[in-house]
Amino acid sequence: MSNEKTTSLKVGELDFPPRKVWMKTYGCQMNYHDSERILSNLQSLNFTMTTDQQEADLVIFNTCAVRDLANQKFYSHLGETKHLKAHINPETGLKNDVIVAAGGCIAQTEGKELVKKFKTLDFAFGTDVIDNIGEMVYRAYAGEKKFSVTSWDRSENYSIETKITQGTPQAYVNIIKGCDKFCSYCIVPFTRGREKSRRLQEVVTDIKRLVEYSGIQEVMLLGQNVNSFGKDNNESLAQLIMELDGVNGLERLRYTTSHPYDVTDELVAAHASSKKLADSLHLPVQSGSNTVLQRMLREYTIEHYLTLLGKMRKANPNIVISTDIIAGFPNETEEEHQATVKLLELAQYDNIFSYTYSARSGTKSARMKDVLTDDIRGKRLREIQNAQMIIQAKLRGQMVGKTFRVLVEEKGISKGVTKWTGRTSCLRIVHFEPETPEHDYKWHWVDVEIISSTALSTQGKIVKDHGKRLTH
Ligand code: SF4
Questions:
Q1: Residue 93: its pLDDT value, please?
Q2: pTM of the entire structure?
């Protein structure tokens, strides 16, 4: 979405001159995927994207309700937009006619309140209406003020075509929306609604099109609980993976996020037989204590979870596993916390995403009486993270001397030295110096031998540059 437009477009009763949209996305990959759909939809109203908020005609915040920090950031960023509305355009000498909108998870649950509370906010829209963004922007330009659209899509089928705007060989492809799990701490079932899957053949056709016409080589299948994909249609994630295995030109396939309860033997087997499925798996555990998992309503035990890890590692000995952990769930005892620290040792995670618990209003756990303080939560989080760093440094150290295939994403300068950065199939970040200063590796497949590592990254030397396409 970068080509400058120069001519005006007539849409309905209105003229849409070339305009700029600036967008801020908070939270998970699902939100980033939604943002891409929003930007793509706005092209038909003559918008191009800008990274400079000051030159934007339309400002959109795509919000996240899962963590308190993202919430607070959004409220503060929204408050700052009053300066934009007061900004004088140097070319016209007039006050900028900026339209400000908020979408995503916070807007889904608080849309009406947000437009009332924040003077600068022109409209709010929920998670299930993002494909109607054009209609809402049209209404705003037609003069409609202060509205909120948070309806749910009631149709039985979930059918979309993936929209991409980034021009990279990587694409997020949404395969299921919503979540039926209702973990006691999670707001997602309230902000994203019930589970609804796309049909398997629709996803396959969509990805074939992306590979053939948009140069996509790496796909991340997305959903709040991808393991539930196809349940209502007698289809499954494992079947989808095996179908995609036959797509020529597709090099790597990932999926996220998984719920351990729904991982089937069929899916484990797909990790053994698929040639495209990457050597990485994100399998959120949340806690190492069975009693905490019960209070979280997670539906599995640690024993079940560890058995699954064992099966996955047997199916693909190269697989690396990451997870999510919540430190200080309400009334977590020291013993329950220590069970999580112990789990790190047992599970040998390659990476963890860990946070202190924060109550989300409307969830079951927010109504629990809780004796823990922020200090205890912070201390437990640090303990978890410190323990993980030691494990991670050891695991990364084992990469040294081995060669990995890397898809190169970007160039940077570190301490005056130019380095390129990419990710392995197991999602580890690798930095390497170019063979010559002018060598351009952007989106090349390269083989890199790892020469040193830390807990967070690895340094390598280039062994072979395959260019932008692999030959098999
Ligand atoms: S599985 Fe649980 S944590 Fe994940 S989105 Fe659904 S309710 Fe939230």
A1: 66
A2: 0.90
